[in-house]
Amino acid sequence: MNGKETIATVVMSLILLGALMIGFWLTGSPLTLENQRVDNARLSDFSFLHEAIQEYANANGNPPANLSDLPASAQKNTKDPSTGKPFDYVVTSSSSFNLCATFFDDSMNKSKSYSYIANHTKGYDCIPFTLTYNK
């Protein structure tokens, strides 16, 4: 390689590296994007479970004691998509409950792309839900 070719190669390499860095800065690293996807899947499962628990409560007059009391169609949404462990479920009253999981990131971080079913903090967090009974 002559001097001009070497300089051109270095310049092109720097441009490519710069483009990659800008891409990661704008969209996040592949790991960050995967963590967001998993956190959003948790929130989606929570939304589905809220609906299933609401239906159970309307049919039975109270929320289920355990997530295992929900119909089989809801069971696939009772486990964390990353760890496979069951979500924590705590009945706080006849009209409210919490669903808990360990999240990769804080949903309040506005630079991240999160589904806003509910806000959550990084790490273990519980999200409160309210039941409305049919009269």
How does this structure look, described?
The chain has one domain. Helices cover 44% and strands 16% of the residues. It contains three helices and three strands. The protein has a three-stranded antiparallel beta sheet, with helices on one face.
Number of domains: 1
> What percentage of amino acids are in beta strands?
15-25%
Broad structural category: alpha+beta
End-to-end distance: 82 Å
| Arithmetic mean of pLDDT | 85
A few lines on this structure:
The chain is built from three helices and three strands, in the order H-H-H-E-E-E. By secondary structure, it is an alpha+beta fold.
List the helices and strands and how they pair.
Layout: H1 3-27, H2 30-60, H3 72-75, E1 88-93, E2 96-103, E3 123-130
List keywords for this structure.
3-stranded antiparallel sheet, rod-shaped
